[in-house]
Automatic annotation (TrEMBL):
Top-level taxonomy: Eukaryota, Viridiplantae, Streptophyta, Embryophyta, Tracheophyta
Domain HTH myb-type: 9-39, 95-149
GO cellular component, as recorded: nucleus
Classification via PANTHER family: MYB FAMILY TRANSCRIPTION FACTOR (PTHR10641), TRANSCRIPTION FACTOR MYB17 (PTHR10641:SF622)
PROSITE patterns listed in its UniProt record: HTH_MYB (PS51294), MYB_LIKE (PS50090)
SUPFAM superfamilies reported for this sequence: Homeodomain-like
Protein name according to UniProt: Uncharacterized protein
Pfam families in the cross-refs: Myb_DNA-binding (PF00249)
Organism for this UniProt entry: Gossypium laxum
CDD domains: SANT
Domain of life: Eukaryota
Keyword Cell inner membrane: no
Length: 328
DNA sequence: AACCACTTCAACCGCTTTTGG
DNA sequence: CCCAAAAGCGGTTGAAGTGGT
């Protein structure tokens, strides 16, 4: 059973968007939102016609000359794009909340750190960088960060230094450290999902208050459930993220100890994660107060991001040094 | 000025996941 | 529960821009 292609209609336009097309799309979405991307192009053209007719009627108090040829106009003008193309254009370029311009140093660091945790899950990474799109981050990674890491002798896949023979093989990790990585992966995904939901309900992002029960709710949610199933082996060490966070002697809080974290188990909290099996390595100097880490997801994320990842990221400070990488 | 190689990034493609009848 | 359609996602492509010779 083959899938029907997205653009089944012949003659749909491809390639770069023209400003007029952008305008039509923006006007339509601002007015109506996007209910169905597939039907949007037709509706956008129709709305354009209706607007013109309404304006004509308002100005001249009679039916617009467009009326008899509305169908023809619709096929000749406006948004002859497939819904998929519209969605992509909107989410990657036209959305008003998109932050344009070069990435800051902090953003680049964050991308590298999140990539170490999440792998090539660009959408999940993008959810932690307000105003940045997954496409943008993916491009940043492929064009800049990956090369910079390579030039530093760091494997962009494993985030570990190359050995003399090339990329290092993944070290085996303890159940406890795997558990941490899996949990963080699941948590970040859930956080991304929650932030999406909060956006959907129009709550301003800044108004999202840290929720003290965040971990508890998450642990009791389907994410936590699937996570527990997959991690029976680690049960003895870590009972829940709460207990993990509240008891500094259990599994995570190792002060000054290098923890190497193996691959995120295939199929952790979501089936999709089986696609990405990037290893993680934390050089964890993880001595902060564990009570703080359960206070809020933001704090927890900060804690996670405060881990100095194995590779020294100081190279990012001196961008010029690596703008023209030696021998790369 | 012309050519070539390289880089960047918007857009497309195809696969997976989610949703709804 | 099943299936088809829609949405979402990551990988890849190719046009445009830039720099070097």
């Amino acid at each position: 059973m083959g899938r029907r292609p997205c653009c089944e209609r012949k003659g749909l336009k491809k390639g770069p968007w023209r400003p007029e097309e952008d305008e039509i799309l923006i006007n339509y979405i601002n007015k109506h939102g996007h209910g169905s991307w597939r039907s949007l192009p037709k509706l956008a053209v129709y709305t354009l016609c209706l607007n013109f007719e309404a304006l004509w009627k308002f100005l001249f108090c009679r039916a617009s000359p467009l009326q008899p040829i509305k169908g023809l106009i619709s096929t000749l003008t406006g948004l002859r794009r497939c819904g998929k193309s519209c969605r992509l254009r909107w989410t990657n370029y036209l959305r008003p909340d998109i932050k344009r311009g070069p990435f800051t140093l902090d953003e680049e660091k964050l991308v590298i750190q999140l990539h170490a945790i999440l792998g090539n899950r660009w959408a999940a990474i993008a959810s932690q960088l307000p105003g940045r799109t997954d496409n943008e981050i993916k491009n940043l990674w492929n064009t800049h960060l990956k090369k910079r890491l390579l030039c530093m002798g760091v494997d962009p896949l494993t985030h570990e230094p190359f050995t003399s023979g090339g990329p290092t093989t993944r070290p085996r990790s303890s159940p406890a450290t795997r558990h941490m990585a899996q949990w963080e992966s699941a948590r970040l995904e859930a956080e991304a999902r929650l932030s999406k939901e909060s956006l959907f309900f129009n709550s301003p992002p800044t108004s999202v208050k840290p929720d003290p029960d965040f971990f508890l709710r998450l642990w009791n949610s389907e994410v936590g459930e699937s996570f527990r199933k997959l991690n029976g082996e680690a049960k003895a060490d870590c009972r829940s993220p709460i207990s993990q966070a509240s008891s500094s002697t259990k599994c995570g809080s190792v002060s000054g100890v290098t923890i190497d974290v193996g691959p995120i188990a295939a199929g952790s909290s979501t089936p999709k994660s089986s696609r990405t099996e990037d290893p993680i390595m934390f050089d964890a100097s993880f001595s902060s107060s564990s009570n703080e880490s359960e206070d809020s997801s933001d704090t927890a994320l900060q804690l996670l991001l405060d881990f100095p990842i194995n590779n020294d990221m100081s190279f990012l400070e001196d961008v010029d040094t690596y703008a023209t990488p030696p021998q790369c």
